[in-house]
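Page 47, continued from p. 46.
Same chain as before, 229 aa.
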Amino acid sequence: MRVMFVGDSMTIGSAGDFTWRYRMWQHLNRTFGGPYRIVGPRGALYDAAAGAAVSYAYRDPDFPENARRHLAGWGEGWCHMAPLIGEAVRASKADTLLVSLGLIDLGFYTNAEQTAANVRRFVAEARAARPSVRAVLLPVIPNTRALCDAPFAAECERFNELLAKAVADLSTPASPLLLASHPADYDLDRDTYDGTHPSASGEHLLAAAFADAMHQAWDVGGPYMAAGN
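Result:
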């Protein structure tokens, strides 16, 4: 299994974070019985002082360099990743994509329908590179802007409906797609540090959403159990 994390600022993380990618790496090490690799063209964290993804200051310095790989970017969404995913899959030979995107698209770039169209383009490009690729897609999760911006909240809700439809329409036995569940009991005060980006507890909940979907549908690993910090 060759896993690629695809996402925005919640996935790349910033200097000093563990990241939910780290939590998933821990989970796979505990529960997945077969060989696997984490792959992708990038490995850095976002550095707010530099305004760029140039930091390697992960909270756990023992997080191995080869497990830090990803295709995630601060301020990047479906519209940015759709043109990149084909080459990333082709170069890395990724066969399993764990994708957390959408919030940044709806907040800055595209409406729900346009974002859903980019989801479909993303899937098509990934399959053009590897016809058997499989993916778990996470809906847009609770965030602070949706609490005070009703039109934005409506766009998030509409996109999540369209994302579920895309997964149902596009999933095939040869290239299955899964829709992960919203993280259970996600609380913005506890599970984020700024209303959007995950705290340590939020990282565990995001990893659990992916891990549990993979276990239930594909018998990959076991149920998620938080370990460590």
